[in-house]
Design brief:
about 250 residues; Chorismate lyase; two-stranded antiparallel sheet; six-stranded antiparallel sheet; globular; alpha+beta
Length: about 250
């Protein structure tokens, strides 16, 4: 019996059956980021339900942030890692959706001791425990775009290996790696954005000039008890713009 059949049997309402199966398909990569979903009619026939019912399932996916509906264009896959805050929006998915080619280059996986200089700017609770730091260079269409340093308590990222961090495809998203490989989960986040000047290390990695203005985004994600699950420092070599709304703020382009 297939996973989709098992999922369908566990749920009761028909729209929820469809929602769970379509979500499973999204997570497995059957519908790629930036691609169009099957039409309401096609999905209704697949699930042997009415278009009203399948529309309810699709509306749930829209509300969850996975897909969007455009008049006359049907449904398009937005992301596999929806979030309500900028720093928890997948850079990988945003680039794939824009028709760009994101890539990742692993620089190092470091183990940091409590109180070390490298943890001085982390949230207070993270400075007191062993930390695993993952440094990656993110590229777009082959050009360096940003340096990303991801920190998590070592107890939450035990056994991190280079093969856990793919260089290409949707699986390179750090959000999905943290969830799917290390089973991390978080409920909220805060973000700080500030200008910095490139030192010799940043200038070398991002192939820019020493002293070049960069944008630093520092994001901390927290569990239900307010403990920091992970922290990320992102140094961007280019500008970033945002779409602002009352409900959320999401990246428009880099």
């Amino acid at each position: 019996m297939s996973q989709e059949t098992l999922v369908a049997k566990r749920a009761t309402p028909k729209y929820e059956n469809a929602y769970r199966v379509i979500l499973s398909r999204l997570k497995s990569g059957r519908y790629p980021v930036g691609g169009r979903m099957p039409t309401e009619g096609e999905l209704a026939r697949q699930f042997d339900i009415s278009r009203v019912t399948i529309r309810r399932a699709l509306d749930m996916l829209v509300q969850d942030g996975y897909i969007e509906s455009r008049q006359g264009s049907g449904y398009t896959v937005l992301t596999l890692s929806p979030a309500s805050d900028t720093c928890l929006t997948s850079f990988t998915d945003a680039m794939l959706r824009a028709g760009r080619e994101p890539m990742s280059r692993l620089i190092a996986i470091d183990e940091l001791e409590p109180g070390s200089a490298a943890t001085a700017t982390l949230p207070e609770d993270m400075r007191k425990v062993p930390i695993t730091r993952v440094r990656r260079l993110r590229l777009v269409d082959g050009e360096p775009a940003m340096l990303v340093m991801t920190y998590a308590p070592t107890r939450l990222m035990s056994g991190a290996l280079p093969e856990d961090f793919p260089e290409s495809g949707p699986g390179q998203s750090i959000l999905r790696i943290l969830v799917e490989r290390f089973n991390l989960s978080w409920l909220s986040a805060c973000e700080d954005i500030s200008p910095v000047a490139a030192d010799d290390h940043l200038a070398d990695i991002l192939t820019t000039d020493i002293g070049q203005p960069l944008l630093k985004q520092a994001c901390s994600a927290f569990d239900a008890n307010g403990r920091t699950v992970f922290h990320e420092d992102v140094f961007r070599a280019g500008p970033v713009s945002f779409n602002l709304s009352q409900a959320s703020r999401t990246p428009r382009h880099t």
